[in-house]
Amino acid sequence: MNIGLYFGTFNPIHVGHLIIANHMVEHSDLDEVWLVVTPHNPFKKKSTLLDNNHRFELVYRATEEYSKIKPTDIEFNLPQPNYTVHTLAHISEKYPQHRFSLIMGEDNLKSFHKWKNYEVILAHHHIYVYPRISEGNTETRFNKHPKIHLTDAPIIQISSTQIRKGIKEQKNVQPLLPKAVWKYIDEMNFYKK
What we know:
Layout: E1 2-8, H1 15-26, E2 32-37, H2 52-63, E3 69-72, H3 84-94, E4 99-105, H4 106-110, H5 118-124, E5 127-130, E6 148-150, H6 160-168, H7 179-188
Parallel strand pairs: 1-2, 1-4, 2-3, 4-5, 5-6
Helix pairs in contact: 2-7
C-alpha cells in the first residue's frame, strides 16, 4: 500500500486537517493517510502542547469514521526532539510491506531545503503538497521535481492556534471541530486557561 504520512501536533485536530487528509486519499494514488501525532516539533514551544496521549485520543476520535485515515503514535517512542527523516526510516523498517510518502503544506515545501537530511527524504519518498497561502517562494530545485506532487486540495484557513484562542475566549468553535473532538475537549476542559 502507498501510505501518506501527514505529520502534525494536532493541538487540536480540526476539520481542516480532515479535509486535507480525505482529499489526499480520495484524489491521489495514496491508499491510506496516517496522521502522525508528533510529540514535539523542534520548531514549536512545547509548553503550548496538550499531553501526547490526549492529542492522540483527539485524532483517534476524529478519524474513527474514516476507514482510509488512521492515527499513529509511532513518534511517541522515538528520541526527542525527533526529525521527519528518522521517523520515515523507522516506519519504513517497521512496515516494509508499505511505501510511505510525505504530505505537507506548500509553506513547508518553501523551507524544506532547511530540513535535516531533506535529500535523503527525497531520495526515498514521494511528497504530496497541498496549497497554503504563505509568503516567499519555493526553491527552484523543487519545481517540477519528479517526486514532488502539487495537489489541488482546497485551501484551508483554519488553525489550531485560532481554535485554542477561541476556546480560551469562550467563543463557539464547534463548527471547526469534529463532534467527537469537541465533546472530548469540552468534557476535559482543555484550552480554557
